[in-house]
Automatic annotation (TrEMBL):
Matches recorded under PROSITE patterns: PPM_2
A Pfam family: PP2C_2
SMART domains: PP2C_SIG, PP2Cc
Species this protein is from: Metabacillus sediminis
Protein's name according to its UniProt entry: Stp1/IreP family PP2C-type Ser/Thr phosphatase
Length: 253
């Protein structure tokens, strides 16, 4: 399973509130995560790094996740744990009051992927059917688009584009969307913060992914392009190229 991840401060911000990583468990299944923190002086850094560190610890100890149902149950439970961890930290550390983070995570096995997300960090899928966004932003402007009050084009320049409807750690309970789907050899997942999706079009993302370059090079190209297009925000990407599903112990989904 080929993987790559990058996080870049961008060209304008004074510090990086994004955090990303890709981790493997005892059965060599991958967990990719991107978190974009927010709230208070440096508290965004705390929220995103705490979330990613917690998921890393949980995932590296995990085992027995062989079906989409297993993965969805594990992911939902751990999201609730991490949300409570962040909420309690903010409650007992006044300097972190109001902190939170977006979250998009992907459990990747040889036969399926399970995606969970909160906020406006995204997951895209490249497969035989093409390239498409498979998460839907939990943001004010996306709700306005869905209700027909504004167009998708209007949303790109809306003054409240960064207002989120959901975030991890800001409330005791959090709503998460989780979905699973079968994968085939050569399918690719791209997870990113809005520092990438606001600056690089889906067409540009697809062109980079289908270029045949190694994932590390593709990740570098995506970061570079977002910076060339302004780089006003932190930029994070995590990418997974699915391996063959043939092998001992593989299960269909």
């Amino acid at each position: 399973m080929e993987t790559a991840f990058r996080s870049d401060i961008g060209k304008v911000r004074s510090h990086n509130e994004d955090c990303t990583g890709i981790f493997f468990n005892r059965e060599q299944a991958a967990f990719a995560v991107v978190a974009d923190g927010m709230g208070g002086h440096l508290a965004g850094d705390v929220a995103s790094s705490m979330a990613v560190s917690a998921f890393r610890e949980f995932w590296e100890k995990s085992e027995g996740i062989h079906t989409p149902d297993d993965a969805e149950k594990w992911l939902r439970g751990k999201i609730e744990e991490v949300n409570r961890l962040l909420f309690d930290h903010a409650l007992h550390h006044p300097e972190c009051s109001g902190m939170g983070t977006t979250f998009v995570g992907a459990i990747c096995t040889r036969s399926f992927a399970t995606i969970g997300h909160i906020g406006d960090s995204r997951c895209y899928l490249l497969n035989a059917s093409g390239f498409k966004q498979i998460t839907e932003d939990h943001s004010l402007v996306n709700e306005l688009v869905r209700s027909g009050e504004i167009t998708k084009e209007d949303a790109e320049h809306h003054p409240r584009k960064n207002v989120l409807m959901r975030a991890m750690g800001t409330e005791l309970r959090v709503q998460v969307e989780i979905k699973s789907f079968c994968t085939e050899e050569g399918d690719a997942l791209l997870l990113c913060s809005d520092g990438l999706s606001n600056k690089v079009s889906e067409t540009e993302m697809e062109n980079i992914l289908v270029s045949g370059a190694a994932l590390n090079d593709s990740a570098d190209k995506l970061i570079r392009l977002a910076n060339e297009n302004g780089g006003e925000d932190n930029i994070s990407v995590a990418m997974v190229l699915m391996p063959s599903g043939d092998g001992e112990g593989d299960l269909s989904c």
